[in-house]
Amino acid sequence: MVEIPDSLRSVFSATVHERDGTYVLEVPSGELSYDAVSLGETYRIAVFDAPTSEQDEHESASADRAQSDRQRESPEPPVEEGEVREVTIETVGDQGDGIAKVDRGYVVIVPDTQPGQQPTVEIEQVQQNVAFASVVASDSRSL
């Protein structure tokens, strides 16, 4: 599975064109309208294989647009206060707290945990880009 970084700004389908000895990737105008990209800036891109048929390509492009639209329309956090879930601690933050990532790379900070632990946590506080949780059950397993 491909790991999607937190810095992912946009998902769309495009065709690569050759123009005057260089290659051009056309960015849909909506990506600029929603501030996903800005003129004159440099970005890293990921390239995935194209669908095998024209129908698949149309469906894939529609799905990409729908996903991108959902992300813009509902940037609600993927967790709720009081929710209990299992997480995997991936790293430790500057303050020494464990950091887990859940849906869409959303960050959950869990004190008193270490990378590789897989505790069950209760979400205590939810903010737009981060949640804070406490361990309700430790898992003796680690990655």
TrEMBL record:
Residue ranges, annotated region (Disordered): 49-84
Compositionally biased residues, Basic and acidic residues: 58-75
Residue ranges annotated for the TRAM domain, each copy included: 78-137
Domain of life according to the entry: Archaea
Organism of derivation: Halobaculum magnesiiphilum
Gene3D superfamilies, per the entry: Nucleic acid-binding proteins (2.40.50.140)
Keyword annotations from UniProtKB, A to Z: Plasmid
Coiled-coil ranges from the UniProt annotation: none
Pfam annotation, one family: TRAM
Protein name per Swiss-Prot or TrEMBL: TRAM domain-containing protein
